[in-house]
Amino acid sequence: MEPFPDLPGFLYRPGALDPAARTDLLAEVQAAISIAPFYRPVTPGGKPFSVRMTNMGRVGWVSDRAGYRYQTTHPETGAPWPPIPATLLMLWDGLTGGSAPPDACLVNLYRDTARMGLHQDRDEADLTAPVVSVSLGDTAVFRIGRADGGPTRSIRLGSGDVCALTGPARLARHGIDRLLAGSSSLIPGGGRINLTLRRAT
Ligand code: SIN
Ligand code: FE2
Fold it and tell me: Which atom of ligand 1 is nearest to the CA of 121?
């Protein structure tokens, strides 16, 4: 469904993953995290993110004093990122109608009061390739508005929900206001994991 008539291309699939699929996907992500542990990036201005991050895929999104970019290795371990699980590639295929596959999957861990300020995803080479986002764990208040300004509105993303920024919504401004802490018991230690699939290069 497209929940906002003035935001065509913003796709929302509540409950796209059933509870068994959520558990299976989390296990795959946990295996990846054991290879590529979460770390806390800093903004180009040197401010630590409240979200911890890692990546899967040929390249991963990183931020540090030098700026935002995609790179092939983990900034702390120097190792290549683990591969994107096949289940996520199939999900991308189904949702995007077979758009050329993603090469990057950002893994964000939100705990407690972690949030993500309003931004656009624009570090990718082809800004027409879709962005697909999968939520696991605690419900998040997701905020979104058109790329060309105007009001934003919020929508609650629960565990197993999938959304996508496609077509005219590809450069929509978006962010996470806050979590509804304790709304899910999926993630050990609590919180939310968001998986963002992108075609970066
Ligand atoms: C992001 O835009 O990088 C993450 C959005 C989310 O956590 O749902
Ligand atoms: Fe984003």
Answer: 2
